[in-house]
Amino acid sequence: MQAKLVAAKGWGMRWTQSVQREIYVNWLFIKRDLWVSLVPGVIFLLVAWSVQDASSQGDLLSALKGGAVYFTLYIYTFCVANQMVGIESDRINKPDRPLCRGLLSYRGAKYRWIGSMAMFSAIAWHLGVFEWALLWQICIVVLNFGGLCQEWPTKHFFLGLGQIAQMAAAWQIIAPITPVTWSWILLVTSLSIPLFGIQDLPDIPGDMATGQNTFAIAFGENAARGMLCVGFFLLPVAIHFGLMMPAGWNIYLLLWDVAQAIVSWSVSLRLLFYSTPEDDRQTYLLALCWYYLALGSASAGF
């Protein structure tokens, strides 16, 4: 009897350790990228819920739970695929990722990716956003396994489609997408696409070593910084005339307008005066804050 208890205890400890290790490995896949998936997805979901009539507002907690799972799988499916094909560049740019560290084999990553794609499809079907999940899955495959992430024009284009899929799914979890919603989704995306190159600035050494032609490499770091600086400087103007003014002027839109301008111009200045890889990572996070504000401002424009 004593031997059985010891064996059962040992099995329980091994099972617990396996679960903890799996959680840790999966966290390493996505820890850098939840900011670009889970956070904006939940923000736009909350905006969609807040602008509905009280009579048509559904259960927010249930929507948030479903949205959190959906947007976690949204980024997990991309990150695993991207890291499967980017091991060599990650050894230089992000050596803490699980495949670089040998915590997981390529085969193990492949099985997790296939499983996560199936789970993503099932969750999307349950939430009524399957078409947007499918669009994103196509982008994942062509970008990573089709090699289109190697050239910056195709990379930016398909990431733009992914952004549309993200925003459309977040809204559709709550309510049907209206023409006004589409105007916000498409304008924010069209303004973002030329500026996606900001995320590649910290990774120039690894990208050059592996033959990737990112925006920063194609135009040269200094020229890329200059163009991105101008882009983020003009961004608040485009948002003001393209979204804020047509939505009808009010104090809440003005506050969102000012907040976006402050953040966007701060990004513009940082691109000129802070240029180490760590500086660029912080600048990228600040640029994501502009994206959050752009999504949140829709709450005052409907």
Structure description:
The chain is built from 14 helices and no strands. Helix 3 (60-85) runs antiparallel to helix 6 and helix 13 (251-273) packs antiparallel against helix 14 (277-296). It is mainly α and 302 residues long. The mean pLDDT is 91. Helix content is 77%, strand content 0%. The protein has two domains: 20-176, Tetracycline Repressor, domain 2, CATH 1.10.357; 178-302, Four Helix Bundle (Hemerythrin (Met), subunit A) (Up-down Bundle).
The percent of residues in helical segments reads over 70%
Distance between the termini: 68 Å
Quick check: average pLDDT? 91
CATH architecture of the largest domain: Orthogonal Bundle
Please outline the major beta sheet.
none
Query: Can you tell me the residue ranges where pLDDT is under 50 for at least 5 consecutive residues?
Result: none
How many E-type strands? 0
Q: What name does CATH use for the topology of the largest domain?
A: Tetracycline Repressor, domain 2
Shape: globular
* Distinct helical segment count: 14
Whole-number total of structural domains: 2
The CATH class of the largest domain, by name, is: Mainly Alpha
Structural class designation: mainly alpha
Gyration radius, rounded: 21 Å
What is the beta-strand fraction? under 5%
Secondary-structure element order, N to C: HHHHHHHHHHHHHH
